Amino acid sequence: MLLKTNACVALLYTFAALHCTNGHDNNNKRSRILWYNAKNTHTGLGLSNGTLQELSRLASDLTQFRALLTPLMVTRVVGTQGHSNVRKHLVDTMEGLNWDVEQLAFDARTPVGHKTFTNVVATLDPSATRRLVIACHYDSKIDTRGDFIGATDSAVPCAMMLHLAAALHSQLSTHSLKVSHTLHSQLSTHSLKVSHTLHSQLNTHSLKVSHTLHSQLNTHSLKCVKRRILKKSLNGKEGREKEGNGGNSRKCNKKNRKKFWKSLLATWSDESVREPSARYYRRKGNCPGNSPVPSEPLANLNLSQVTRPQQNPKCLGRAKCCQVNQSKYKFTYIPDVQSDLTLQFIFFDGEEAFRRWSNTDSLYGSRNLAARLHNQPYPPNNEDNTHELHRMDLFVLLDLLGTRDVSFYSFFPNTQQWYARMLSFERRLGELQLLNSRPNMFIDEALHKTGIQDDHIPFLKRDVPILHLIPVPFPSVWHKLTDNERALHYPTIDNLNRILFAFTADYLNIVP
């Protein structure tokens, strides 16, 4: 049923886009307007200084991070008990956070015989059409000299992903519900103006939202939970009860709403977006769009400005008021979201070679998954030859992270604008004194011909946009028995967590 819902979303998305061409030269325009090209125009939300401070607070819980890392700090050679225990830790953690988790097992021939591998794929909202993918590998290499822990390779990257999901659980859950609510509305109304013929086809193929999803959306409504506000008369007798959802109560009035917007504007980082009035923009529908980072040398960019909000906050979201009781109320800023975009984690198995690195003895999990997704049409039976890989907006691969000696570069021209946002967040967090003291990790240079072999290669060959976070040169403990707990530098890991939190919130348009 979930697959049918996904297909319906993509089909409606395509139909709406084609409908907007007014029937002129549809065939020529088709390749430019289908859903899978949305990644080419997607921009980050832009984060205010106040938002960066809150995200840094959430990311800085090293106690939680260590608790998630400890079960990963064991030898994890494919086929061993340690490997199975680590996979269980990944699955249990993500399922405990209410993500949809798939364990995709497959057999492959290796230099040491047939082995069974299992990729773990966790998706925040499987019904969403597009994904921001963050990935790592969870196996460790065989080392005949002793127990190879692989703290940086890649226990720490896996723990960073778990920490991101756990620390932003509330924000990500809200984002997921908003995506589902938006998709449900599109499917259950005529807002997309689906023709009667298409509607009949959709009914024929049972591409409807399941009753279960409908119930979940009603249970987790985006509106403030209605609370009974008991009013008592002066003589102490019970008065009438009033149902309030925030908007009708005395404290959630226009005056207090205006005060909320004023206080929010005071913390908005870009002075230029405060005028002209956002109210004019909202009424006229003329809010300017965020501009993508231009494709120019990184050294020429004003890195302190790249990730600042480019619009007035009223153009980017709305204020919601919840009345708690007669005297307490709370306004919350709810940003507009990309209604078809979600977050997906991939924990690859079998990245390491069993004997010597080669095209056939390495990247077992990523080669299998890339081929599997490439061969799965999405939506099913579509005429555009689109498949599951087209759903990946951006593939962010983490590897060899955790030591102090790290320097990152932009490796691919088509994702340089997203690397620039990482770089910008590091600079801004540093200016706000939200990072531990150390040299900058993200270098404003591009290295486009490194020849690094990692789990991104099978996806890169199939034209998936790649952002590779791997230090160059590799850490001094790479593939050595010293790649263990003692090699880790937690202030650096803490900085990386804060930057990754900011990048994810920015891409998904999440405000904590």
TrEMBL record:
This is glutaminyl-peptide cyclotransferase. It is an enzyme of class 2 (transferase). Belongs to the glutaminyl-peptide cyclotransferase family. It comes from Petrolisthes manimaculis. It catalyses: N-terminal L-glutaminyl-[peptide] = N-terminal 5-oxo-L-prolyl-[peptide] + NH4(+). CDD domains: M28_QC_like (cd03880). InterPro entries: M28_QC, Peptidase_M28, QC/QCL. Keywords: Acyltransferase, Signal, Transferase. Residues 1-23 form the signal peptide. Residues 119-173, 338-503 form the Peptidase M28 domain. Its EC number is 2.3.2.5. Gene3D superfamilies: Zn peptidases. One of its GO terms (molecular function) is zinc ion binding. Residues 235-244 have a biased composition (Basic and acidic residues). Residues 233-253 are annotated as: Disordered.
